[in-house]
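Supplementary Note 3. Input sequence used for the single-chain structure prediction.
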Amino acid sequence: MKIPRRTNLLFGLIGLAAAIVFLLSALDVFPPGIADLINRSWPVVLVLFGLGIFLRDRVRLGGLIALIISGLLVGGMAATAFSSRSTGQRTDYTASIDQPIAAGINLLRVSVQTLSTDVEIVRSLDATSIKGEFVGSSESLLQTTYSEGDDKTANLNITETRPNQFPLLERMGRGRFRLELPANVPMDVDFKGGDGTLSLNMSGLALERLNMDLVKGNALVTLPAYQPLGTQGDASLGTFVVREGDITVFVPQTVAARFQLNRGGSGLDPKFSTVDFNYLVGDILEARNFDSAEIKLRYAITAPRGQISVEPSATQ
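The predicted structure, written as discrete structure tokens, is reproduced below.
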């Protein structure tokens, strides 16, 4: 009597897939980041074999369940590894900025976009140039462009990019970027950040407008004692957005500020001094001396998952 041989389709598919993966890897078909992940994940194949053998005769569709569990395991391992690596500070790559500014520029537009980077923007001690330094992972690239127009305006664009769509795990990490802006040039500043702490110390700058959008992290914003020249009436001077994190805004004593708040679903009441501010209907914080003050600043603050705080500034 012949006993039919039992075959396991799962093991056959695993062997075929492994052979194809190793062949493509040997031919350098995979991006370096994917090849690195494959090399680190090969022990999961042993887990898959073990689960397949264990579940084969005990659970219906045991092979499929083993495959799903192994896939989730690989995904979880990759996510955990990249997450833990991304919080470490890297110093593999350095880029410097030293950009002179022509005399007579009446408006400087500054645009900064970063990824996983701690950012600090402050006033420069040099009134004739823009200075900056980026230190981070070799998987990052800082691109800077500067142009001046015939209308006496200038544009500075600073963008952090990641040329490799799948970076090597060992090169992942957080960067830090410091930008120094000249005090004597009226400017519009626009910042967009991915993940990291943000400090915008605008004290001493001729700030006309300021917009910031930070996906994850905490933000500190210090407003200058400066009345914008290019904005008329009750127009807002910009929006501060922190999607996952807290934001603290420091206001000089000589400035009367009005903030339109958007707290989303955080349920957190704003923190502020009742001596200096009124909390008005419509989620508005307004300085008590707003109507009589010489310097009036209007901004919107959005923090759907964090704490909004407004405090007096230690510097003028």
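The CA atoms of residues 126 and 182 lie 6 Å apart. Residues 9-86 form one domain.
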